[in-house]
Amino acid sequence: MKYPAMSHKHILKYVCIFLLMSATAGCSHFGHYPVNTPLAKYNLGYGYIGENMGPESNSEELLLILTFSGGGTRAAAFSYGVLEELRATEVTLGGKKRRLLNEVDMISGVSGGSFTAAYFGLFGDRIFDDYEKRLLKKNVQTDLLVSMFLNPVNWFRLSSPYYDRSDLAAEYYDKNVFDGKTFGDMLKRKGPMVLINATDMSMGLRFTFNQTMFNAMCSDLSTFPVSRACAASSAVPGILAPLTLKNYAGTCGFVLPPIYDSIAPNYRQREIKQNITLLLDAKEKPYFHLIDGGVADNLGLRAIEEAVDAVGNAWTTLKLAGMEKVRKMAFIVVNAETKIESHWNKIEYIPPLSAMMWNYSSIAIVRYNRETMAILQESFGRWAYQIRSGRCPPGQISREPGSCGEIEFYLVEVSFDSLKDKAEGAYLANLPTSFRLSDEEVDRLRAGARRILTESDDFKKFLRDLGASTH
User: Fold this and answer.
1) Of the candidates 165, 300, 187, 306, which has an alpha carbon nearest to the alpha carbon of residue 236?
2) If DSSP codes are grouped into helix, strand and coil, which group holds residue 209?
3) 3-class DSSP state for residue 250?
4) pLDDT tens, position by position, for the chain (471 residues)?
5) 440, exposed or middle or buried, with CB in 10 Å at 0-12, 13-18, 19+?
6) DSSP code string of 1-19
7) Strand runs (DSSP E) across 225-341, as ranges?
8) Are 248 and 224 in contact (CB under 8 A)?
9) How many CA atoms lie within 13 A of 380 on its CB side?
10) Helical H segments across 312-352, by residue range
11) Quick one: which of 185, 192, 199 has its CA closest to 66?
12) Strand pairing report for 62-68 and 104-110
């Protein structure tokens, strides 16, 4: 993109503006990020939590969860293709045909995937009208660079220690993608519960934007811009800066639920309790500095797994969420990870530092993703036992259709490796992690996601069990 050369008059104008703003720096304290709102009083059941989300027309017997991984526009477009296919897929529930898209209960998004999750959560079917134009097929990366380096006003703002590149990016997303909407707006729409995940850089913990987390820090998520959550989730270290939140813990009357009163019986529950206890100490931790969610969990699955771990029982988790009638739980995991460079297997000379660093980060993400998927799948048997034991009278567990013990789990992975066309899968996996892809690349990602779903044996089984037809 070419930009017209500035005349001496224009240059002088910008210099004057910059000098004027610099002269008033003592009054303005430079730029400053918008501080998250404190919560006046904690109320159980308030705000953006799972119990308050979801269309009333959703089937009570199906729990459908999507997770969208990180990966810039590559991940955003790949996830969007999955939504397109779910829109085109009809299922029969309660004798009525419905789009499978309308049965989505929860979407957990990370980095690039968080944008698609958030946009659908805010606007529903509007995503199919303008999302490509507003994000997928827009050169967001260049727009941000121009705003940072060619706008003298932003030179001044970025010189502040309280305002940085991620704050500027959040403002861009707020204006150009999300129309200034907040989590309160998402709550009003009553769509699927959307979890946007970031990472606390000082603790290494996954930070999920929901009112449950904000209750612990005595802050009100309903006023928080969705754009800032997505900016935090996609704040890649070294490219974008951490995004800051203030901790008001101890000012709203929040207390830990009774479940945390006793000593937790396993390591994971003890760790969760220790982390929450630290979050409740605003003197020890007065601020959260959030970076890319992919650092803690690039698939967005840990937020769901740890929610069950925190409670300690899958049946108790369903009861707390008001989902006691669930008979089928399906996870569609959209994984847009890049691949480890394997061509070095055939080269004798020592790989350069750049190749080593690329594979260093890729290996960590890929291995962690595999472990997360394995943990989820291995949990299904334990969760099924807990649900049957909790829902059925002692000694009367039955697995027949419609019985108290009927519960089935499905895991569908949408990844580039899943494409039967291996050459196309390799092409998509090698697309850069950026917010700048060509229209053709975006369209191939969308088409690839749809093709993977239609070719997936796990997805076909899920559809057969629901009595579905595809278009």
Assistant:
1) 165
2) strand
3) coil
4) 444 455 555 545 544 444 444 444 444 456 899 999 999 999 999 999 999 998 878 899 999 999 999 999 999 999 999 999 999 999 988 788 899 999 999 999 999 999 999 999 999 999 999 999 999 999 999 999 898 888 888 888 999 999 999 999 999 999 999 999 999 999 999 999 999 999 999 888 899 999 999 999 999 999 999 999 999 999 998 889 999 999 999 999 998 877 666 655 677 777 777 778 888 889 999 999 999 999 999 999 988 888 888 888 899 999 988 899 999 999 999 999 887 655 666 677 777 766 666 665 677 788 888 999 999 999 999 999 999 999 999 888 888 888 999 999 999 999 999 999 999 999 999 999 889 999 999 999 999 999 999 999 999 999 999 876 544
5) exposed
6) ---PPPPHHHHHHHHHHHH
7) 243-246, 287-291, 328-335
8) no
9) 14
10) 314-320
11) 192
12) parallel
Alpha-carbon span 329 to 407, nearest angstrom? 8
Structure tokens at 195: 């979890």
Q: How far apart are CA 243 and CA 17, in angstroms?
A: 27
Q: Pull the structure tokens for residue 82.
A: 């999955």
d(CA 345, CA 387): 47
Structure-token match 């203030």, residue found: 246
Burial of 71 from C-beta contacts in 10 A (0-12 / 13-18 / 19+): buried
Instruction: Quote the CA–CA distance of 152 and 295 in Å, as a whole number.
Output: 33
Residue 64 contacts residue 57 (beta carbons within 8 Å):
no
User: Residue 454: what are its φ and ψ, rounded to 5°?
Assistant: -70, -25
The model's pTM is: 0.90
